[in-house]
């Protein structure tokens, strides 16, 4: 039961002091949620009120089912952008049809997340590496900033999902800038940054929204041609079943998959980041998928659009001292009150104010520091980040993620296809066996004995490389060579292709009158050695726990203790046989 | 110069005895090459003479440029089938157009191989694992056998690239079997198998070809309605530039890429198999690509079709004692003589004889033994082989290879995403630290100290798993725990994502008043530890060469020798700094 409704975990021990903190945090988040929700809906290309609709039931459902106690769910910038970009490529006419499609999209995102959770696919998120996430987020932030330029400048620009087209379009319209809009936006940005720096406790977003409305109302700024949010329908959303047809579902499928994964990724990474700080350990990957999925499904019945955890609001909530998911309920109450009583006020809210809120909140997602870090420390991963960034920026968001993931997997495979292969030797007066190049001054190199270490699993992708390298080292040693010891400590797996190669190689090496020993094989590798042809070719007497023992045996083949033999020959088949005898 | 023309390597030291061996081997291979070439051209859907054309210039060009001295190049069964299946899906009308397309295909295959060689992409072949190759070859062999059924049975069956359709079509025509054709074919098969078993030195293929021609000629078997090869044009092929147009190139691209890679794979694996036996070491992956590519390009100017190394003829050549590529020149002379003087004889050669040659040579490629081996030893790789086999058999050859490669890469990634993570402990009276479960009877487990080993590189795909497992183990130890030692011997890499995770994790662990030590990190891992934030969080005093030293330090923090410290802290930055000082 507690697995399905994680809030049951804390509800029994809930204290009065917790309530006060949750109430305060909930209200603080709610104050930000209202303008942010409207702003993000605008990014998504929706009428602002849908951002408020998406802040009701999805938030409540997550409070019931989610495993993180401190994340704030609702509309977020990145997902809103994904919605806009995804639907931008489809030819949808009219706001009504657009809303319908967005609702279907929310339903699909929810169903995908729910199913992934049920199928326990939460581990998938592990394949989004940090360079991919950062490259992707940085590019998305830039796209969002440019998508808001028209609101900040008060010009009308044809939207495009190609950033360079947007930039060109803005450039052509620079002559038409409405300086009142522009000034309002700049003041908004300045105030937000100022509050953030010097008065952290004041909810800057709320202040500039109120100031904006007041300014428009009293100075009748609309006469200067500035763009306002306009009429926001009053009242709560009603229950409407999304209308599905196969054609739409097909068209929306790629963007729904991307949104489902990105949304999940955001929620889990924000949740984990907060857990890191609190030391709590409640998040369960698959239940999170189910919770987010349910949020989106229920949200789609009430004209919401895809939601996930918001980075900024989660941070605000955490700073305000939230204790449990109950705080989310108070945020929802605030949104309900807004929808019932405050919508008439938003008629006077300038779009430039919402644009300034969006810009300030996303610009910090551009991760220049990480770019620099990777550039100086990891050129290969820098490349992955750059590719992800450029493709996201210039080709598309889903393509960016996809190719980023592909690149990082390829990098991983490439890395293991030519792993580190070194000759090691004994460091005088110790039982250390280390790289003869790194420790050139200390290591004793013998001509009659080649000791090598291979730093990777042995599999089809590198078995040819392994063989080539070993033969090269054998050749370099010349005719004095009598034996070869393979230090297998970092060979953590041997697949069928490599096992075959190794078996044949040992055979060939022995035919050349050279001895071959394996030292330091770990358990799983020993199991493989014993279950394949390797052991028949090698003979178990040539397996050792430590390199030093192999060297001693090479020098004097009698010297091996009972314990050393027992540990060296242990493997799962033997263990099973022993158990059966007992 | 010797890199471009590898034959310069042996030509200077060429001996008279080598010449005799090359002459004999060349003639033996030539005797098989003529009927095989014709038979394989038939598989490819071409008039048999094109198999002879493909046995001229391509073979000569390879002799000049190839790095393997003992492989026999020319038409082969697998590539012929790929040609047939690939072109079968395009709607080509008329033999003339079909030939034109095949020639364009040969040119494209050549260009692709040549470019891959120039771009030094020879390593790509490493990604074809043995289960994929075996699964693919087994399925292809079955497809070839069924494609030859109609010739063996003397029925006419509409060709199809779907094996089940071929089987059904054959089944429907079973009533129309020509028993003379069938008998000839069965006798051919029986003789081939018989010679192979009891009289290895007799060239069985030549014998049954001669017997077939003689029988048809003297007993006028054509009156029984059997199918004959028919008129084979006499004379050498003339130089004709292939006619290219973009539409054809586009259509042929996927099949050309598959053929280029498969052909290369065959050549390199046959070449390496022979090198294994002779101890020679002359094959260079990229030069092989250039050699094969040039062969196919030149071949396409003389109405050839894609060629590569033949498994059966290379084996024959090796058995006959070939020494160098000169033997190939003698084979070519034999083909030239055939084209000039012997073509009239082939008019009387029954198709069933060619079918029996094909069937006997490919049926041994069905690798049931390897299926069984994987089934009992490697269920996961068995699955990869089975998928490759089934997709090749029922969906398509290129799809089979592609999905096979993808599956084996995914398996590799999956394996590294949840690697072996174990607690290790000291085996009494030794400095062995081993898995506490495997060595439950011997290991001393301490409550105040957790020693763990993680058997994989640490990267984005498993960094979350690592953290989860470590925290689980820490929790299980309970409040008595004072320190954690990570045995990093088999962690052969740490990527940026994982380095970040590890840095934060060490910080969190230390905040819980627990100590954290890393023991046994290998050189490349030490470099990463020292070049990322890990070292700042960890402090280098907590790095050790051996697990035992970390344990001793945990028990008594003063005890560390100068040498131990020096080896433990060695890293590339330090080494560079030291070099700069010197």
TrEMBL record, chains A, B:
NCBIfam families: sulP
Primary localization: membrane
Gene3D superfamilies for this protein: STAS domain
TM regions (residue ranges): 23-43, 49-65, 72-92, 98-119, 131-149, 177-195, 202-219, 252-274, 326-346, 352-371, 383-414
PROSITE patterns documented for this protein: STAS
Location of the STAS domain: 439-554
Keywords: Membrane, Transmembrane, Transmembrane helix
Protein's recorded name: Sulfate permease, SulP family
Localization, UniProt: Membrane
Domain of life: Bacteria
Membrane topology: Multi-pass membrane protein
